């Protein structure tokens, strides 16, 4: 994105955001270790120190039985050098914090059962108040009550967000690796297909040979379905999320089987078959190893589904299943011409930009439909997260990681869509004997586009449509290579590619 566009979005963000994420560190008097909780504060009331070591550890006064709106709500003796914790409601933030400050408080924590909102006021109120006021979620308050005793200490601080999180390196390796391996695998299958044609193995292997050529009509239908599904998920997220999770489990099981079967079938002396029977499917006498592999793949998917909300390790299973699904799709779906590649990538480029940058102007909350659906709406009653992304937990400790986005995400579409172009390039390389120059150039361009996406994310501090950067990098690179090699007509129409594959 150009600099003027960045400045425009920065101006919009400055106008909308009147609060910041911070941390409230709770501990007990006799213990040095504690736990951080997310808070939402407004620096116009009072600023918070950036370092926990510079923050004052003060006694917490639990007053969650009150909303602190009237002088009668103040306990006898007030809050000398304490931070009261009260419930939200019945009066304004200013009335609460003013009562707290007049009675000696050094800060105020307001517990909210609803979505955390900016603790706003007006200019004169900001000038009158010199203690920090922050919102704390109700679930965190319950955890604090059970985790710490009566002598609770709290320190509020707001460290700076790191420019780059190291989990981006992991996402980069996974994405580029999936695109490279999937594109190479898909292209190599066309070269081997003529030899595999003469084999007479079981139905599993024949199914493994099937591919689907994408037509312009299929592209249009696919994009319409994507738009419709995204809008439906935005408005009916809780009702549809569980269906998406179920579909992902089924599709990822198939993908994992497809990726592991080429290795399993090479195990020597393990081709025993099921005895003769009249059972459905088993009457074809499949190999026992294929049944065991199927059970293993289904077991992995079911394990993820059961423990999908275990943030500490479930993301590893999700990413494994997601990569397997992407590899399966890159091997199965085929774009026959560069013309089809250009059409698909261009239409999805517009789709991605529209749902990330344009939809905030139409939604009531001012949030992007794409970002809300990918990260999960904050007001969701089920708190389910869609598994259609690669996700890696943030490795740096920061308020944003604690409060808003503990994971960095990259959608499967940002891997699959450019990956189909990489696969086309590899097939064209093989059939024209061009030493994989198109494949290597497109893969490198994808990695470069992903780096640009990460830079834009760090600079703008908001969700980015990755295809905004990936599509120009990959398409223009392929176009430049074709022009340089004077093969644009053949590359555009797939000349030789279609003819050769039809002979197979």
CA-based shape: elongated
Q: Could you tell me the radius of gyration in angstroms?
A: 28 Å
How many H/I helices? 18
Low-confidence runs: 1-18, 200-208, 498-504
Instruction: Classify the helix fraction into a percent range.
Output: 40-55%
What spatial order of strands do you see in the largest sheet?
1-2-6-5-4-3-7
Number of strands: 11
Please report which band the strand proportion falls in: under 5%, 5-15%, 15-25%, 25-35%, 35-45% or over 45%: 5-15%
**For the residues shown, what is the average pLDDT?**
83
The main pleated sheet reads as: 7 strands, mixed, barrel
- End-to-end C-alpha gap: 44 Å
SS-derived structural category: alpha/beta
- Helix and strand succession? HEEEEHEHEHEHHEHHHHEHHEHEHHHHH
Task: Describe the structure using short key phrases.
12% strand, single chain, disordered N terminus, alpha/beta, 7-stranded mixed β-barrel, disordered C terminus
What does this structure look like?
With 504 residues, the chain is of the alpha/beta class. The chain is 54% helix and 12% strand. The chain has helices spanning 3-16, 93-102, 123-128, 138-147, 167-196, 203-209, 216-235, 237-264, 288-306, 314-332, 338-358, 369-375, 399-403, 413-432, 437-460, 467-484, 488-493, 497-503, and strands at residues 20-28, 34-41, 58-63, 82-87, 108-112, 133-137, 152-157, 212-213, 333-334, 389-393, 407-411. Strand 1 and strand 2 form a beta hairpin. Helix 10 (314-332) packs parallel to helix 14 (413-432) and helix 15 (437-460) packs antiparallel against helix 16.
